[in-house]
Amino acid sequence: MIRVVVADDQAVVRAGFAAILAAAPDVDVVGDAGDGAVLLDVVAAQRPDVAVVDVRMPVMDGIEATRAIAAAHPGTRVLILTTFDLDEYVFDALRAGASGFLLKDVPASRLVEAVRAVADGSMLLGASVTRRLVEDFAARGDPRSLAVLTPRETEVVAAVARGLSNAEVGAELFITEPTVKSHVSEALRKLGCRDRVQLVIAAYEAGLVRPGARRDD
């Protein structure tokens, strides 16, 4: 079961998302919150696998909550909800440690799929947001070299950067899912990346994948 908490300052929206997720056979909604401060308490108490978080909330917004969760509870992945795919707050949240974002008008089935993907270690990044992340990191003038990676680790990083889940990477490269996870962990260590978002940035910086590349490219 994937343990999930839902945070949104609109009670109706929060209840709607929670109901959609709770209806999935492999998802257990273990808590909800109306602001970022309450969300941190819920995450600390429940230790969920995924936190579905609205960007704009009172007391503490989704960005600060994401940063705090990433620092104190790295086992909880954050899936950001937003109204616009180019929302500057979403960009900041991804840099703070979120694993991806969804528009609030997402179909119910897509929401469930997104939670499953994020729990599995995948990311949900729109092409426009990925380009902005690449530009931001590249502007620092210190792109990471992938030369320290083995050929297999390079293949795994390329697949991850295309948006594949661990299971999909394993199927594509004919290796087991635990092996994929091991390669990802080793690539993170070697490249000094905090999370999979930075791993994707490194892949784009090195030209391993091109902006806009999809899982079927």
Structural class: alpha/beta
Strand coverage percent: 5-15%
Cα gyration radius (Å): 17 Å
Largest sheet, strands/sense/barrel: 5 strands, parallel
CA-CA gap between termini: 31 Å
Low-confidence stretches: none
Q: Kindly state the percentage of residues in helix.
A: 40-55%
Individual helix count:
10
Secondary-structure blueprint:
Elements: E1 2-7, H1 11-22, E2 27-33, H2 36-46, E3 50-54, H3 62-72, E4 77-82, H4 88-96, E5 100-103, H5 108-119, H6 127-138, H7 151-161, H8 166-173, H9 177-191, H10 196-205
Please characterize this protein's 3D structure.
- The radius of gyration is 17 Å and the shape is globular.
- Helices cover 51% and strands 13% of the residues.
- With 217 residues, it is α/β, with parallel strands linked by helices.
- A five-stranded parallel β-sheet has the order 2-1-3-4-5, with helices on both faces.
- It has two domains: 2-126, Rossmann fold (3-Layer(aba) Sandwich); 138-205, Arc Repressor Mutant, subunit A, CATH 1.10.10.
- The longest helix is centred in the C-terminal third of the chain and has 15 residues, at 177-191.
- The model has no long low-confidence stretch (mean pLDDT 85).
